[in-house]
Amino acid sequence: MNNDLHAYPVRAVKGVTPAKAKELEALSIGTVADLIEYYPFRYEDYHIRDLAAVKDGEKVTVQGKIYSEPVLQMYGRSKSRMTCKVYIDPLFISAVMFNRHFLKDRLHPGQDIVLTGKWDGRRLQLIVSETELPGGSSSQTGTLQPVYSITAALTQKWMRKTIQQGIVQFGALVTEVLPVPIVDKYGFMPRKQAVYRIHHPDDAAEGKQARRRLVYEELFFFQLKMHAFRALQRKRADGVAHEFDNEVVRQFVRGLPFKLTDSQKKVIGEILHDLKQPYCMNRLLQGDVGAGKTVVAAAALFATVRAGCQGALMVPTEILAEQHKKSLDKLFEPYGVQVGLLTGSATDRQRRETLAALHMGLIDVVVGTHALIQDDVLFRKLGLVVTDEQHRFGVNQRSVLRRKGMNPDVLTMTATPIPRTLAITAFGDLDVSTLRELPQGRKPIKTYALGHDKLDRVIAFIRREVLEGRQAYVICPLIEESEKLDVQNAIDVHVQMSHAFPDFRVGLLHGRMPTQEKDAVMNEFKEKRVQVLVSTTVIEVGVDVPNATVMVIYDAIRFGLSQLHQLRGRVGRGEHQSFCILIADPKNETAKERLRVMTETNDGFEIARRDLELRGPGDFFGTKQSGLPEFKLADLMSDFETMEQARDDSADLVADPGFWTSADMLPLREFLQREQILDGEQLD
Ligand code: ADP
Ligand code: MG
Predict the structure, then answer these.
(1) What is the C-alpha separation between 47 and 355, in angstroms, rounded?
(2) Antiparallel, parallel or unpaired: β 409-414 and 382-387
(3) Ligand minimally distant from the alpha carbon of residue 570
(4) Residue 289: CB within 6 Å of ligand 1?
(5) For ligand 1, atom 10, which residue shows the shortest CA distance?
(6) 571 pocket-lining for ligand 1 (C-beta < 6 Å)
(7) Is the dihedral of CA 609, 611, 616, 619 positive or negative?
């Protein structure tokens, strides 16, 4: 936060040699600011305590008098064990010291001593790790000492000393960065004090207070960036203000074959409101699998078309593109809205024709895969871009598509429910709409976890369901990072299933198949000509076959909870009771717990929350698409309330016109400029 401190390399601190500087660099400490903002993750407590109140196994510092001469046993040249009786009111204990024979001559009966170590109450023994004798130079007794995360080549002692030295030399340059009203509102320590005290608190409460302030600060600047970005986007007002009559959309909704859920109505309302505004909509629609997101997108696309613009719907797979094209055709047909399809498997001629029609405006809505974002795709007037199952798209792809229009509105849909904790972090720069409920009449899917040895029963069960007229998916074991092995697995399982069901048709679907073959299999499954579909996870997103009632997942523990939930969401889409069978032999408690979560709940938000608890935020999205910021001090789970405060405060700040002009706020605007959120000319 502080320019000046960032200008000094860490070498400027006394005691930091080039070799040490290199070690520090491995901890991302390059400047003095990095060094003194390298906060401890816990403290060692050297306060003297009453032994009577100490629990077995606890580490403790106690004070007493040596009672007997130490007894030393040497093991070889350097290893030793020394014991001596110490009186620690009201107990006589034995102090056990390993490899500290050099102390022998300094320990005499009658002498005062401070011992730190692990207490064994049953044997009245203290396994000593540190001693302090009268007149010793160190005086950590009675303090909390910071513990830093360090590399093997550094020691805690050196780190403590060096950070302390950094503060002595440069502490005066630490200045306040938070607005005064915020410091006052929460009764925060001034920054200088907080930076000092987090390294050297007088007591635990003070350490907490310092941390609280610094956590807030970290989260505040993070939130400020996102809110300022959003506010500027609105201020610029360079989006499309779609003009259409709400009644037209209402009519479209009345024409649907079902009644919308309250959630769907509310979310459509939010989107229509955004579409009419002159700024760019940037909205995330999250809803559990089967919540009915497609029809929400359809309503938004319909409004866009009625406002004289074109819409695009981008999806991650060709199967999904075709499926969406079909549903949109059905929904839009009565209104003469033209839907086009653009995927990688179109012939050159088809592609040329579609492109021409798009450019001339003969196609109102185009559905497609990443083929939509190639350079030769031009629109007449692109007004709305919807991306479905957004977690499959990189940010880049989305912005490329956006540039094709004149800042079209963007609606992003995901069925990976993001727990609230993560949503305000990962999507702080988006408005979020949520479909909370499923359409009525859905029967909850029954989920079971079985061992691989129960495969016979699973096969018998599939047989029964198929004989009742239903269909089944069998998802193959997942091999991380190797599509080739996934494919091999699918082929093996397909052979196995074909053998088990000689009287049924068993289909095979995997990512390496040519698109036409994939479509053919998928269509056969939809038309019930294939009863059992063996597939890799290509089936994961969006596919809608209501007659399928069984989802069998091999090696279920290899999948993330959210992915299992997605896969399970392929069934339970029709009137019949559906089942999900997780085949797994969990080896540890976490794996068992994950399966238990799946069998206990069908609620995607609950599953996401538990997934987050079990895996932590880093793993939640998978590293590739995490997009989550890394915080120095803040913890997304435990500091969630502070995150909410920081969010509200920064939202209020940027909503105040004074923020953009007043002299008080100049440091914050400079921060935004450094972060390239504000352009130079907007600063004054
Ligand atoms: P998802 O949110 O997973 O994309 P879809 O949009 O594919 O869900 O919808 C799942 C199914 O529910 C579709 O067959 C769709 O036609 C149907 N559906 C959507 N909304 C409703 C509703 N309000 N009432 C009944 N069925 C609905
Ligand atoms: Mg969907």
Answers:
(1) 75
(2) parallel
(3) 1
(4) yes
(5) 290
(6) no
(7) negative
What pLDDT was estimated at residue 102?
86
The pTM for the full model equals 0.70
Give yes or no for residue 295 CB within 6 A of ligand 1. Answer: yes
pLDDT at 396: 57
pLDDT of residue 470: 96
Mutate which of 262, 264, 266, 294 for ligand 1 pocket (most atoms within 8 A of beta carbon): 294
pLDDT confidence of residue 443 = 85
How far apart are the CA of 425 and the centre of ligand 1, in A?
A: 29
290 lines ligand 1 (CB under 6 A): yes
Residue type, 127: I
What is the distance between the alpha carbons of residues 412 and 399, in angstroms, rounded to a whole number?
Answer: 12
Terminal Cα distance for the chain, rounded: 21
The fold of the 246-276+292-414 domain, in CATH, is Rossmann fold (3.40.50)
Atom 13 (ligand 1) nearest CA: 292
CATH 1.20.910.10 fits 446-601, yes or no: no
What's the 504 CA to ligand 2 centre distance in angstroms? Answer: 29
Tokens of 567: 């896969």
Q: What are the residue ranges of CATH 3.40.50.300 in the chain?
A: 246-276+292-414, 446-601
Ligand nearest to the CA of residue 320, numbered in listed order: 2
Q: Which residues of 80-89 are buried (b: 16+ CB within 10 A; e: fewer)?
A: bebbbbbebe
Q: Whose CA is nearest to atom 15 of ligand 1?
A: 292
Whether 297 is in the pocket of ligand 1, judged by its Cβ within 6 Å, is no
For 520-557, the pLDDT digits (tens) are 898 899 999 999 999 988 776 667 889 999 999 999 98
Cα–Cα dist 663/666, whole Å: 5
Where the chain has pLDDT below 70, the residues are 1-3, 135-138, 390-403, 405-406, 417, 419-429, 479-482, 540-542, 616-629, 678-684
CATH, domain range 47-142: 2.40.50.140
- 201's enclosing H/E stretch is none
In DSSP terms, 366 is beta-bridged to 312, 340
